[in-house]
Automatic annotation (TrEMBL):
GO molecular function terms attached to this record: methyltransferase activity
Native organism: Actinoplanes derwentensis
Keyword field: Methyltransferase, Transferase
GO BP term (any one): methylation
Protein name, entry field: 2-polyprenyl-3-methyl-5-hydroxy-6-metoxy-1,4-benzoquinol methylase
InterPro entries in the cross-refs: Methyltransf_25, SAM-dependent_MTases_sf
């Protein structure tokens, strides 16, 4: 219960409202958008955005012509997302979706798996996503790499701190992220790159493709103007697209996006 309260407290501060439009979050946003636009059914598709937060992705999905329903457990997120034109936002839990079978052509879980440390809960959320998705549709889920915390603390210069190092080293073994304070992120689960595919399979999703979203570029893209200049941003996105399905690079990417055909 303390962990749930801490996660709720983190999101209640409102940081998720703008996170994907500032700093390194911009690269995560652009690459998620880039991959989804290639794998989603043509608009107007019925899209369920599970754990969609304040609607960062729901906004552009609706603008692209999709019929978007957003489900999130945080009332503040639902309230914010509900103000977006073309987005229907409701409270809900990824593990128990109050949606009919085969109602959507695409179901997205771009955040829920981070916060389900129990493997069976993650499989249940994926199974629910598959249930509400029509045959031939897609389920897409984002995960954070097991190694993201290590690289993040190294880049920020925090790893030598004994407490940070203790937590980070344990995280590499267990995948459980326990933050030192909550200024950067909250309690979460970080996947080994191979792990998500087996969870998809246990949920009955076997036609799976995994994409490395930021590759190693998340370690530098918010510096030196990479995301401030259109030409450099385009070049960066093209480079990441060229290597997005290379398994040997999955571990260095901060986020992975795994897509299955139902």
């Amino acid at each position: 219960m303390e962990t749930i309260a801490a996660i709720s407290g983190y999101y209640d501060r409102g940081g998720e409202v703008n996170r994907l439009h500032t700093g390194r979050g911009r690269l995560e946003f652009r690459r998620t958008q880039d991959v989804l636009r290639r794998v989603l059914p043509p608009a107007p598709a019925r899209v369920l955005d599970v754990g969609g937060g304040a609607g960062a992705h729901a906004r552009w999905l609706a603008a692209d012509g999709h019929q978007v329903r957003l489900v999130d457990p945080m009332p503040m997120h639902v309230q914010h997302a509900g103000t977006i034109a073309g987005v229907d936002a409701v409270l809900g839990d990824a593990r128990r979706l109050d949606e009919p079978d085969a109602a959507y052509q695409a179901t997205l879980l771009l955040g829920p798996l981070y916060h389900l440390p129990d493997r069976q809960d993650r499989v249940t959320a994926l199974r629910e996503a598959a249930r509400v998705t029509a045959p031939g549709g897609i389920v897409a889920a984002a995960t954070i790499s097991r190694y993201a915390g290590l690289y993040d603390t190294l880049v920020r210069g925090r790893y030598p701190d004994p407490e940070v190092r203790r937590i980070t080293d344990r995280e590499l073994v267990t995948g459980v992220h326990e933050p030192v304070g909550q200024e950067l992120f909250t309690h979460a689960y970080f996947h080994h790159p191979d792990e998500i595919v087996t969870e998809f399979a246990d949920a009955g999703l076997t036609q799976v493709t995994t994409y490395a979203l930021e590759g190693g570029a998340w370690l530098f893209a918010d510096r030196d103007g990479w995301l401030e200049d259109d030409d450099r941003t385009t070049a960066l996105l093209e480079a990441l697209r060229a290597t997005e399905q290379e398994p040997s690079l999955f571990g260095i990417s901060s986020h992975l996006l795994t897509v299955a055909v139902v």
